[in-house]
Amino acid sequence: MYETQFSNNSYGFRPRRGAHDAIRKCQQYADEGYKYAVDMDLAKYFDTVNQSKLIEVLSKSIKDGRVISLIHKYLKAGVIIQHKYENTLKGVPQGGPLSPLLSNIMLNELDKELKKRGHRFVRYADDMVILCKSKRSAERTLENLLPFIERKLYLKVNQEKTSVNYIGRIKFLGFKFYQYKSTTRICIQQKSIQKMKEKVKELTKRNRGCSNKNRPLKLKEYIRGWVNYFKIADMKRLLKDVDEWMRRRIRAIYWNQWKKIKTRHKMLKHFGISERKAWEFSNTRKSYWRISNSPIMSRTLNNQRIKDLGYIYFSEYYKQVSVN
Fold first, then answer.
1. Per-residue pLDDT tens for 120-129?
2. Which long-range contacts (CB under 8 A, 24 or more apart) does 251-255 make?
3. In this structure, are residues 126 and 103 in contact, taking their beta carbons and an 8 Å threshold?
4. Strand 36-41, strand 163-166: pairing
5. CA-to-CA distance for 22 and 7, rounded, in angstroms?
6. What is the mean pLDDT of the chain?
């Protein structure tokens, strides 16, 4: 019933719509000249929704009082936090199956107001960007919207995180935008790159206690998920650098596993290194990280051999799924 009422500019928690569609819509608006954005942040949205206002909004469409009563009970049922019961006098329970729909129903009131005022906007759940043609227009839009959001919907806008900026300086759903030859392109925000590197670092720790069989599987699973989410962004050069760094970490793992001089000598010879070089190298006192970047290890565990061990590379998987 509500799906037909929702705005075409709302993309979160809706069938056949997702983050990629929201980012593409922003890109489209920017190419049409709407290059200044109100990057709005609703403070702790799911925790602060006014339940009375939500019930009032629901009552406009739902005429069966029993359904309204059931939803009200669901909202007030309380939650268990660290084995203790807590009342839920405001907000909607995060992780609850009904919460995404209720959040969209509430924020649909804001969508309707924005449409009535003729604004270009994109919303994904409680993340919203309103696009304007000038900075002054964007500042005026924010100024005029605050009373509606805070006095009519009883929601709180985080003033510190809400800003008016050129579209190239905003971050939305982990992505950023940049201009190239008068068109708007998509890239990844630095925080998302940093999180990815931290995860890869965690999965390739030398002392993690993960078997050589499971490590490639876990990395493969993570790489596929990450690349599929960010595949609409331009990141070829970034991924080549990440792959080089990841391969170096993988080489360090295997060098660490060949702990004894005898084992290192045996493995180096097995991978085609000469007797003299293998003996010389297996006796080195250099650190694991330095050794992992040496020409000998690059020959011993070259890119193809690492692939044969079951690993996949960010850049190669990106080529398979990229939509650019």
1. 999 999 999 9
2. 251/291, 251/292, 251/293, 251/297, 251/298, 251/300, 251/301, 251/306, 252/206, 252/288, 252/289, 252/291, 252/292, 253/204, 253/206, 253/215, 254/301, 255/288, 255/291, 255/292, 255/297
3. yes
4. antiparallel
5. 12
6. 92
| Cβ-Cβ contacts under 8 Å for 33 (sequence gap 6 or more) | 133
Place of tokens 């890119």: 303
Q: How far apart are CA 130 and CA 138, in angstroms?
A: 8
The model carries a pTM of 0.89
State which amino acid sits at residue 198.
E
- Per the document, the length of the chain is 324
Tokens of 65: 């009082």
- How many Cβ atoms from other residues are within 10 Å of residue 20's Cβ? 19
Count of CA atoms in the C-beta half-sphere (13 A) of 36: 14
Handedness of CA 317, 319, 320, 324 (dihedral sign): positive
Q: Which of 261, 299, 306, 300 is nearest to 282 (CA)?
A: 261
Average pLDDT over residues 277-285: 87
Residue 110: its H or E element: helix 99-116
Neighbouring C-beta atoms of residue 215, cutoff 10 Å: 19
Show Cβ contacts of residue 115 under 8 Å, excluding neighbours closer than 6 positions. 7, 9
More confident residue, 278 or 240: 240
Q: Return the pLDDT at 79.
A: 78
Task: Check if the beta carbon of residue 252 is closer than 8 Å to that of residue 200.
Answer: no
Does residue 298 register a pLDDT over 80? yes
Q: What is the greatest pairwise CA distance in the chain?
A: 86
